[in-house]
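Researcher: I'd like a candidate sequence for this fold, 497 residues long. If you have to choose between options at a position, lean toward the conservative one.
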């Protein structure tokens, strides 16, 4: 078993300053309750997209979904790249064509939420990366507008990290790192590299393992090795026991047909649906996602920081993966596949609205699968926004806590959690589900929260502990609009002996 590295609490989700914490006052004496001060959340995350456009239609699929969330993510460059599947002939023109379809629906889409960028703004971000494959196209004198843009964005007066979402080969990022190391002082290079956050869909050229070897401090999320073991594949495949929102019929009815020019642009599945989308799902502000903490889990899956063994990921000296990418052993800890144990909650005919299903699942795919129905319905609703007025479409609920997002309590104490301030902008009825996300905390066993989980507030007893532990509690709020939409809040409780 590979050794997992425990990460200290840092960069926590923001706290809502409680006015009087009246709900918590019913739970524990005010002098015993500690409200932690947590840094303010970033309004938007910065991202650069590296895409091997037209190597597979799924890049166009992922781009269309990304554009529907472009009001909530700062897209700073759209870079056409190569990959093992497309070693030359990069296609920035294909990106531009999809942006043109976005431009046709912009007026309708922007009625539903502020800050959607105009098509012209996005067209200005399209550029070319390395024109050749892998590390053979990286080195002195091989800079491109894509690699130069990454350096320029890192040097900008912006304290936010720069996420690099890699949908194909990563050698444009490798070129940027090569140039940083060659042209910057050691101190300046370290500062720029510290601002990088990389999430790449497996390794689609030989530059990924080179970067992880040459830049040991680089923040890197990846499922290396054999594709079938990768977390991201959970978005592309049907799994028994999970509600199906990825069938060809569902895609046709909810995305492609009668959904305007952007929906009509969404191509049929060839190899897999939107295999690249998990590389930015964690950047969507939904109350659950905390992208700097992959171990906390979110729409893009959950990942832990460790060095995976060769057996875990199916690699070895001289072994080649799909398409011929070298499958070398990992040289150092990376953010990679983690395992969740998950029992779906399903609708009940009467009584409490939802209850646990009979089946329980346990593997790394579950870390993404557990959210897939939520994120697919959200995608369908946003596609509806491209053809509907505000009054004729559904919009997600706004989840509001009656207390801070991080609390400290004593071992064995009773505690209450309260989301009574939650509302729906369309006036829809709401369903609530509180649960302990055990894997995101430090306790091995889930905390028994009793059966009253279908209410906006809950009361339960914390476990007895011998040392300080943390527990993550999620409230999942779903409206009854069409399609039904879900948002979340995460409460982190530090349990002291």
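Model: Candidate sequence:
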């Amino acid at each position: 078993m590979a050794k997992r590295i425990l990460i200290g609490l840092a960069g926590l989700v923001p706290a809502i300053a409680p006015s009087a914490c009246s709900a918590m006052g019913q739970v524990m004496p005010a002098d015993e309750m500690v409200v932690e001060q947590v840094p303010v959340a970033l309004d938007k995350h910065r991202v650069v997209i590296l895409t091997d456009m037209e190597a597979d239609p799924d890049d166009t699929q992922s781009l269309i979904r990304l554009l529907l969330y472009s009001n909530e993510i700062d897209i700073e460059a759209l870079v056409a790249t190569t990959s093992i599947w497309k070693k030359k002939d990069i296609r920035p023109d294909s990106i531009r064509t999809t942006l043109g379809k976005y431009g046709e629906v912009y007026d309708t889409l922007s009625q539903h939420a502020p800050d959607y960028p105009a098509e012209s703004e996005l067209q200005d971000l399209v550029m070319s990366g390395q024109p050749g494959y892998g590390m053979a196209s990286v080195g002195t004198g091989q800079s491109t507008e894509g690699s130069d843009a990454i350096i320029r964005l890192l040097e900008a007066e912006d304290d936010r990290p720069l996420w690099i979402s890699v949908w194909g080969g990563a050698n444009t990022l490798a070129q940027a790192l090569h140039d940083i190391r060659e042209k910057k002082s050691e101190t300046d290079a370290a500062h720029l590299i510290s601002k990088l956050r990389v999430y790449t869909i497996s390794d689609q050229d030989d530059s990924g393992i080179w970067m992880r070897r040459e830049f040991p401090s680089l923040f890197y999320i990846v499922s290396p090795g054999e594709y079938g073991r990768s977390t991201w594949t959970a978005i592309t495949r049907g799994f028994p026991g999970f509600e199906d929102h990825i069938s060809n019929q569902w895609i046709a009815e909810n995305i492609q047909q009668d959904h305007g020019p952007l929906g009509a642009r969404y191509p049929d599945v060839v190899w897999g649906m939107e295999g690249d989308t998990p590389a930015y799902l964690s950047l969507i502000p939904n109350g659950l996602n905390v992208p700097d903490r992959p171990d906390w889990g979110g729409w893009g899956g959950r990942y832990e920081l460790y060095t995976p063994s060769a057996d875990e990921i199916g690699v070895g000296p001289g072994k080649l993966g799909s398409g011929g990418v070298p499958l070398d052993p990992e040289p150092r800890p990376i953010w990679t596949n983690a395992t969740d144990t998950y029992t779906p909650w399903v609708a009940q005919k009467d009584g409490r609205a939802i209850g646990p299903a009979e089946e329980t699942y346990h593997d790394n795919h579950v870390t993404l699968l557990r959210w897939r129905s939520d994120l697919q319905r959200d995608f369908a609703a946003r596609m509806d926004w491209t053809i509907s007025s505000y009054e004729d479409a559904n919009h997600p609920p706004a989840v509001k806590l009656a207390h801070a997002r991080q609390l400290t309590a004593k071992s064995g104490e009773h505690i209450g959690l309260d989301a009574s301030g939650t509302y729906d902008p369309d006036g829809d009825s709401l369903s609530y589900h509180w649960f302990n996300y055990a894997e995101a905390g430090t306790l091995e066993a889930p905390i028994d929260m009793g059966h009253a989980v279908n209410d906006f507030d809950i009361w339960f007893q914390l476990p007895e502990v011998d040392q300080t532990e943390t527990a993550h509690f999620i409230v999942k709020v779903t409206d009854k609009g069409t399609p039904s939409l879900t948002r979340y809040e995460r409460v982190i409780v530090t349990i002291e002996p």
